[in-house]
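Shift notes (night). Ran Ribosome-recycling factor while the centrifuge was going.
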Amino acid sequence: MSIAEIKKNAEAKMAKSIEAFKGELQKIRTGRAHPGILDQVQVDYYGSLLPISQVANVTLVDARTISVQPWEKTMAKPIEKAIRESDLGLNPSAMGDLIRVPMPALTEERRRDLTKVVRHAGEDAKVAVRNVRRDANDHAKKLLKDKLITEDEERRSIDEVQKLTDRTITELDKLIQTKEAEIMAV
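Came back to this:
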């Protein structure tokens, strides 16, 4: 493995860490509705548990309401029950075969709790990025030990990976601040 491959590999893994963190942020509920909120809710579909998105059409009605349209009319009750029993604190209401899920307003205390969750998830993402940096530096040191690169090349590789790590962590910090501002906005 060359230095260029090490850097490219580290860059790809750090980008995946950012994408995973963005996915994690989407699951954290603000006062606004987002169809992805229901992604982790599983519904009993003829004996097997499936995500709601695989048995119904999930769309936004407005900024604070999600609409769930089951593909089979018989699935309306199980979907409504699954949403109500999930740990999301949502209270769906059925209107015929259409289920409306209004997003309740967040209390100040709940907003503070959510910002802590965001910071914790951000810290986990930063740890993942630092682990990628450590692995890349270990690869460079191994190449030096095997005398495949010079000490100058190893030092340059470590510096480049550090700059990449710093950029990635700065981007994660911006994502954390943006999400916290979104949560604290009334």
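The chain has a mean pLDDT of 87. The beta strands are 42-45, 48-51, 56-62, 65-70, 93-95, 98-102.
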